[in-house]
Amino acid sequence: MPNYAYYNQKFMPLNDAKMSVMTNFMHYGTGVFEGVRGSWNKEKQQVYIFRLKEHYERLLNGCKALKIDLPYSINDLIQLTVELVQKSGLKESQYIRPLAYKSTEAIGVRLHNLKSDFLMFNLPWTRYLETDKCKVAVSSWRRPGNNFAIPQAKLTGQYVNSAFAKTEAIENGYDEAVVLNDSGRVAEGSGENIFLIIDGKLVTPSPSESILIGITRNSVMEIARKEMGLEVIERPIERYELYTCDEAFFTGTAANVAPIAEVDHRLVGKGEIGPITQKLCELYTDITHGKNPKYMQWCTPVF
Ligand SMILES: Cc1ncc(COP(=O)(O)O)c(C=O)c1O
Questions:
Q1: Closest residue by CA, ligand 1 atom 15
Q2: Are the CB atoms for 192 and 167 separated by under 8 Å?
Q3: What's the domain range around 199?
Q4: Does residue 143 belong to any structural domain of this protein?
Q5: How many domains does the chain have?
Q6: Tens digits of residue pLDDT in 243-269
Q7: 72-116: per-residue pLDDT in tens?
Q8: Ligand 1 atom showing the smallest separation from residue 58 Cα
């Protein structure tokens, strides 16, 4: 299997990257991670990695919050990621998982006086949401706000909240959860941002609504404005608007642009993929695959 890892400052086959059971971050969630997309472009025989710089900016901000001091600059991390994919020789669409973590082999809840390290690996791409028309439910779980967590950072420990929401949704027969924030307003999916289309405008929760400020979210906002001339509004969103909007979709590195067809047993629009969602989906797919010359600055070629 051509999956590769960068671990202990060395490249190695993924199966050789093993960690001690006493590693601090495993016990206390003291890690910060990213999910990065590599897309295979068959015509160009090329893998394009999407918005690598922005992923590492977010990772390094999370590291600051966790008091993780990595000896790598953003350019070093970009270079290591390209090298990882080259070494693996994986010429297909893929998911890359960088992780910075508290590496000291010691029990004890704290952030100080602990060593840190960085690893990453790549895997062939698999579909994240199993359907093209998601049926979702508002979760009984809430997304922790700034009094309890750092919603803007991908801290490993915070993802138990996402796991609660995801499993509740799946076990209740839905494809994904919509998680409200502490104020009862719409925040996001368990691992995706959310957009609604209301009166021809794209509406998405503002950054202050306890969301992860997604890189796909940012990309879709820019594409919608520039390529479709759509007005994009970041504002608080009420649960009621989920039931009455014309179209809705999730965005995320793993989920791409994923249409939502039903919320709490109410059809979104006619329960079909709406025209704006469809167009955004096509534009985003082309751009991530390095097929749109206007957006090549978002794509890092590997081979
Ligand atoms: C909680 C959460 N929200 C939103 C997203 C979407 O972010 P991005 O588009 O940067 O992948 C993710 C995935 O990383 C996530 O885990």
A1: 191
A2: no
A3: 134-288
A4: yes
A5: 2
A6: 999 999 999 999 999 999 999 999 999
A7: 999 999 999 999 999 999 999 999 999 999 999 999 999 999 999
A8: 10
Catalytically annotated residues: 154
Ligand 1 shell residues, CB under 6 Å: 35, 162, 188, 191-193, 212, 214-217, 251-253
**50 and 145 inside one domain:** no
Ligand 1 nearest atom to the CA of residue 188, by list position? 3
Report the residue among 39, 49, 179, 212 best suited for mutation to probe ligand 1: largest number of ligand atoms under 8 A from its CB: 212
Nearest residue by C-alpha to atom 1 in ligand 1:
191
| Residue 297 resides in a domain | no
- The verdict on residue 303 lying in a domain is no
**Single-letter residue type at 301:** P
CB 67 within 8 A of CB 112: yes
> What pTM does this model have?
0.97
